[in-house]
């Protein structure tokens, strides 16, 4: 299979999976009113998705290495399709939380294994560019989920948005089943072999640095996302549609990165990309901290998206080389760190908003992400340690 066809198949599931994960954030207020609960409670649906996504990674990684990445993806997308279908009919918040947990765990078998497959099939010299092309589909899914879900929810309700999400996942599942029908069957799972692979990965200082970087990155950047709609509503800055458009700015920033990545790699190099990415994300958080209207927030989110993908795409490309013989396991630990950070970031930002307010919370996050970019630029500019075997 050509790299182009591979990215097309993987991009379909990446789009659908990201849409399903991001669509909830701009609908927080609508779901809360319909299910007679508080927006703060419904905002935690984000953590209900990302925590199981994170904690399933150490299991799915070695299973993907042993049984075949394509095979595991087929099963995961099937379960995600079922969970999304059932979410359409969720009668209360408790049921919706349970289904989001299942959906998050199943979604853990899509994007991380896709990244590992690209690592398997694309030469390292072209890998960051190939990953950025795959990320276009993921980003567009994020843009659609963040922006259009809020707008559609005001017309067809949140259940209508879940129906659309389920239809997209049906298309992604069909594409994956057909596209990978000739994939090798894989081998058998060996717990001791999986443990040895993890031991090799965790003994690699570069791998540990990358896992730490994405954990801190996710806490700093993603904590504000589910609170944006309630914050806009509190200050009369708009409803679900405006929150969706503002959050959608993040995805547009990602598309700007995808358009510029070839130039950045040629002219700036990894070190400057990382340093600038951290500073861009920090500037965006500072702007958001002053609580302007949704249009200013949208511009800040665009800058944040650009900065985030400058950091994150570089980390992704680097992690695919820390353990070439256990690539799914390495990417799984990377995803575990990233989505664990996302889930924790929601909780940390919630505590910060209640105790010290929006401005102070975003200023702290800005300082952290700027420092991260500069630290990562220094660490990853140094020669890599010998790869795990």
Largest sheet: none
Overall mean confidence score, pLDDT: 85
Class derived from helix and strand content = mainly alpha
Low-confidence blocks of residues: none
| Helical run tally | 17
The ordered H/E elements are: HHHHHHHHHHHHHHHHH
Percent helix range: over 70%
Structure description:
This protein is an all-alpha fold and 389 residues long. It has helices at 3-22, 28-34, 39-43, 45-55, 57-67, 69-87, 93-107, 111-121, 124-179, 191-202, 205-222, 228-234, 240-267, 269-288, 294-319, 327-355, 357-380. Helix 11 (205-222) packs parallel to helix 16 (327-355) and helix 14 (269-288) runs antiparallel to helix 17 (357-380). It is globular. The relative contact order is 0.16. The mean pLDDT is 85.
Keywords:
globular, mainly alpha, 82% helix, 17 helices, 389 residues
Write the layout of secondary structure elements.
Blueprint: H1 3-22, H2 28-34, H3 39-43, H4 45-55, H5 57-67, H6 69-87, H7 93-107, H8 111-121, H9 124-179, H10 191-202, H11 205-222, H12 228-234, H13 240-267, H14 269-288, H15 294-319, H16 327-355, H17 357-380
Helix pairs in contact: 1-8, 1-9, 4-7, 4-16, 5-6, 5-16, 6-7, 6-8, 6-9, 8-16, 9-13, 9-15, 11-15, 11-16, 11-17, 13-15, 14-15, 14-17, 16-17
How would you concisely characterize the structure shown here?
By secondary structure, the protein is mainly α.
